[in-house]
Amino acid sequence: MRNKDFNKGTKYEIFIGIKDKDSYEELLSVDDFKDILTEICVEKQINFSLLTQLGGYTHDKGYTTETSMRVVIIGANEAEIKKISKWLKEKINTDTVLITKTKIEYCFMK
After folding, report:
1. Which run of H or E residues covers position 52?
2. Which of 15, 61, 81, 92 has the fewest CB atoms within 10 Å, counting from its CB?
3. Measured between alpha carbons, how far is 7 from 106 in angstroms, rounded to an integer?
4. What is the pTM of this model?
5. Residues near 76 by Cβ (< 8 Å), separated by ≥ 6?
């Protein structure tokens, strides 16, 4: 495959833990998170991939680990990513959301 077969774009990744910021407990399940994410992505017709992983961080009461969700989105704009992140943060009731932005080249194999 030659480089001309690739498109240039931006990949955004949203990292969000599912522990509640007030109780430091995982009040939502992974399936609950999937439902919340799917609701907004279907409404806005945003293509995404979702990965489940383990994350760890320090907070006011010490260090903890939690189920961490990574949402990968290619093809949306930065303003939309920020809106989705804010919406997820509020729905899950978490302290912070991490967003990364990477310039990429991609192609779809048919």
Report:
1. strand 49-59
2. 61
3. 5
4. 0.90
5. 12, 46, 47, 84
